[in-house]
Amino acid sequence: MSLRESIARLNKVFSRRRADQGIKENVRSVTPQVRSKIILLLRDVTSGALPGRQQVQYDYDQGYFWSEVHNLLEHSIGSATLSQAMANNFVHWDNDAERRDLALFLRECTTKQFLDFVELCFQTEHYPRIGSDDSNVIDAINEIFLNENSPYRMTSFVRKEEVEDVFIYGNRQRRTVVRIIHYPQVIYTEDEVVYREALAPALTALSRAEFTVADGEFRTGLEHYREGRYGDFLSNCSSALESVLKVICDKHNIQFDSNSALSTLLETVAAGLGLEAVYAEKFKLLATIRNRLSSSHGGGSQPRDPEPPYARLMLNLAAAAMVFLVETSDSK
Fold first, then answer.
1. How far is 290 from 286, CA to CA, in rounded Å?
2. Summary mean pLDDT of the chain
3. Would you call 5 helix, strand, or coil by DSSP?
4. pLDDT greater than 70 at residue 235
5. What is the pLDDT of residues 145-201, one digit of tens each?
6. Cα-to-chain-centroid distance, residue 228
7. 148: helix, strand or coil
8. In which element (H, E) is residue 62 found?
9. Which residue spans within the chain are E strands per DSSP?
């Protein structure tokens, strides 16, 4: 990863994503209890222990992790001193001072800044994990959010295998490398049932390498949805569904016109997967909502500003349709 890419990642944390989209409303607070539980979890995991156990998991000093997080926050905030308390008092700067600065910052920072911290934890070299599995800590953080009725969840790493040529002692060899496509992000969810039954399965289905484009479109759509830009959400959600349909066509050698309307693509894929015609008819409701309400088409003298229930309907239908079609495609 280049230096430019490293800096660019800092512009994609929770608070910056919202600011870049002109979001002005206050987000729901992360309570002091949630903050403490997440910090304690990270402390135990990075020190080589699990809550209530002293089993060593790592060979390295946990100071690496906290120092790396502090450094990323410095660049993200634009200050070598994070906390106001430390900035107001001259201290001899050492590793302990750095830890104190971070601890004070996490106590006094805003909710957005704390969620930035949670995301940046997984952009460090020594990011928190147990063994080679990096999903366990993310799952534990989501469990804390869930049990404390906090409206946030973390997504997982998205990786892609690539084959590249390398030269060893002048001989060209091919090797497979795994690159990170998406780092974990904090997403905002108001409805746990919607998240668990529709959103989470869709994000999991789209995390595969072949759906990288669809995943990006869907995540952008979710940002629009959370901030009330429902016309834009309908557009991005529909684009994600179209991308999924085209990937399935390529996978099963289903002939299609790349310029086909969404309704036509739905019919084509349903037929190509051997589904009954009734499924294609039901799926067409997605195209109807998109055509009538999304910002993809001009509204003339009447700006398109769909009501929240239509956006919620689209979210549920599109997420369920994508999961259904991907699973059906896999079973063929």
1. 6
2. 82
3. helix
4. yes
5. 989 988 898 888 877 777 777 777 878 888 787 778 778 888 877 666 667 777 888
6. 18
7. coil
8. none
9. 152-154, 158-168, 171-182, 186-188
Q: Count of CB atoms within 10 A of residue 86's CB?
A: 20
Per the DSSP assignment, residues forming a β-bridge with 161 are 178
Please give the helix or strand (H or E) that residue 154 lies within, else none: strand 152-154
- Among the listed residues 143, 174, 123, the one whose alpha carbon sits nearest the alpha carbon of residue 5: 123
Q: What is the dihedral of CA 9, 15, 19, 24, to 10 degrees?
A: 170
190 secondary structure, DSSP code: S
What pLDDT does residue 1 have? 64
Tokens 């990937």 identify what position?
247
Cβ proximity of 285 and 279 under 8 Å: no
Token pair, residue 139, equals: 């799952």
Please enumerate in sequence order all residues whose Cβ is within 8 A of that of 78, keeping only pairs 6 or more positions apart, or say none: none
The answer to whether 189 touches 195, Cβ cutoff 8 Å, is yes
* Model pLDDT, residue 58: 52
Structure tokens at 300: 């003339």
- For residue 170, the tally of other CB atoms under 10 A from its CB is 5
Query: Could you report the per-residue pLDDT of 236-268, keeping only the tens digit for each?
Result: 998 999 999 999 999 999 998 888 888 889 889
Contact 103, 40 (CB under 8 A): no
Stated as kind and residue range, the H or E segment containing 17 is helix 14-20
Under the banding of pLDDT at 50, 70 and 90, the label for residue 38 is: very high
CA-based end-to-end distance of the chain: 38
158-168 and 152-154 beta bridge pairing: unpaired
What's the sign of the alpha-carbon dihedral 23, 19, 119, 94? negative
